[in-house]
Amino acid sequence: MDVTHILEGMNDRQREAVSSPLGNSLVLAGAGSGKTRVLVHRISWLVEVEDVSPHGVLAVTFTNKAASEMRHRVEQLLGISVRPLWIGTFHGLAHRLLRIHWREAKIPQSFQVLDSDDQLRLVKRVMKMLDLDEQKWPSRQAVWFINTAKDEGRRPRHIDTGGDLFNITHLRVYEAYEEACQRGGLLDFSELILRSHELWLENDDLLRHYQNRFSQILVDEFQDTNAIQYAWLKVLGSRAGLMAVGDDDQSIYGWRGARVEHIQRFSKEFQGVTIYRLEQNYRSTGNILKAANALIDKNQDRLGKRLWTAGEDGDAILLYAAYNELDEARFIAERTREWIDGGASPGDVALLYRSNAQSRVLEEALLRLSIPYRIYGGLRFFERAEIRNALAYMRLVANADSDAAVERVINTPPRGIGDKTVERLRQHAREQDTTLWRAANDLVADRGPADRGPADRGPADRALAGRAANAVKGFIELIDSLTEQCEGKNLEEIVRLAIDNSGLMEFHGSEKGERGLARKENLEELVAACGEFGGAFVLPIDPQGLPSQGTEDLLSEFLDHAALETGEHQADSNASSVQLMTLHSAKGLEFPLVFMAGVEEGLFPHRMSLEEPGRLEEERRLCYVGITRAMKQLYFTYAETRRLHGSESYNKPSRFIADIPADLMQEVRIRNEVTRPLSPAWEDDEGSLRLGQRVAHPRFGEGVVLNCEGHGERTRVEVNFEQVGPKILMLSHANLELLNDS
């Protein structure tokens, strides 16, 4: 039989994997080694050469996009419709199975699948029924508990609380949630796989049928399987030939249940496994691959492989040591502009970072140079829910009559103000032509407009009663108290009070795993943003040495700045634009130019990785993923001083930089002295500042210039003052006095 068309254009290792004998095999597919091609051509080989029925092949992957691409390419190769074939995600295949065998699964034929929002709403209703305080027991935390248990294959009866109040309470929620789902014929995403796994275990005849039907099973991204997915595959594939395709060096989702040990022990738990290594990389230059290999070699218990390319070594990896995060962002934006001005497309550039909170200063630097950008798979900084919530509280401090702000946070965090109560406020506000804030005060105080008596009041004027009244009164008292406390405070103090007093930090931080941590870090970054903004605009100083710009004006100016940032400047979805994303989001993507920002101890590797076994190795794998996204040029950047999450830190360069041989890296040097034009009032002086220059400020005292950026009236200077620490000032208003260095 002529199999040329199946193996055409493949390297030796790819051909070996595609044409491997029937049975169990493990394909260790390095980054950029063509694993999708191997998977698709393996299916073609099984059907055309091994005479396996297309209906006897099961192919599993993790994303709908990957499954769609696989189906399309298989259809092109085989020339048949793939609609009847079982090619899809774990959730999609489990759903298909349950639709066919709903009786055996003991679920209604018309069962409904809950998406994540639907699930959260149901959990909230269950917790309300159990009379649990949302502030003490956040619903998102309960969702995490339920989904984690299901991903580990545990029903409520399998959970040992150990007498712990957290576990006892969430077990009650899990039990009540299961009862509600059973009554309503509802299945969440985690339930799909758990229920289909139980279908195997509880129906021997059905299990044997599918074990006999699916003689060949292929699994993509095997290193990302969680406990229940692995168990599902072990039971179904105990008689089949199973080809597991993945890369233990790219296992980066341990925080959401993926277990790298599944791929590491595959050859021990399945019989007669043959291992194939795809090591030839078709994406990156030789130096990038050498750096990736050297880094990942530091991890233990690897299955082992070394990426290589038939192409050239290319440029060295460039390393930039920034003074601070602003200098880092400026450098990245300027190098990006040079790249684009040289004829490259903005879409060829990716800015990768460990923490979502890092995006803010990068976004601002790109905006200053008019570089189009998008946040890949996420929202720009000022569009994120936790940031908009905090800004809404700040808006109420500046102007309590803001209806949009009231609507956004009147029940965030939850305080027992339901939709009916809010609608009552809206109705009263409409009838009295007033704001929601004033309507709330009216109804809580049981009063209508001043010129009307009780007999003139309509239904909407009646006071709120019972728990609703107390809840609205509590919100009013919170805002009144917050406004009073913010009087005379600077912008950084205002945002800190808003976040802490409102309970937003505790509310958003209650989400388990990376998501909750990211939300907390974003809120802390908002504090930092206010500190920078306040430092820049607290001047000029009046003759008495006091700020001439009031706190109220400063707060309003910052809120206007944030509003203008929201929803604008981000490139059109169809336009070529620089991509900003977390390292976790970058997996599977590739770009000619990649910047990895914030490569420093405590940030990357993340400080929490030092506290949990195995986390440091996962952080190193995450760095490996970041490196192997780059095709032609890779930059590492780090800041000697970084203001992130609301505090100043002095971090060492990441250990990951030291893991890479020095001969593969080149440090980017800048001038020892940087000058910028000063304000017009200094024209008869030397007219320039330099880094390290000692200066004096009428309010903050003496300090040293750390950085200077911008042009003309927008020039900003960062000074590290001896008494108050670093401040960023508008140079045209700063009234700085040059001091002798002696």
Describe the structure.
The protein has 742 residues and is an alpha/beta fold. Helices cover 43% and strands 15% of the residues. Strands 9, 10, 11, 12, 13, 14, 15 and 16 form an eight-stranded mixed β-sheet that branches. It has a six-stranded parallel β-sheet with strand order 3-2-6-7-1-8. Strands 20-19-18-17-21 form a five-stranded antiparallel β-sheet.
CATH architecture of the largest domain: 3-Layer(aba) Sandwich
Q: Structural class, judged by helices and strands?
A: alpha/beta
Largest sheet: 8 strands, mixed
Average pLDDT, all residues: 86
> In whole angstroms, how far apart are the ends?
87 Å
Q: What percentage of the residues does DSSP assign to strands (E)?
A: 5-15%
Please tell me the total number of domains: 5
Approximate shape = flat
Number of discrete helical segments: 27
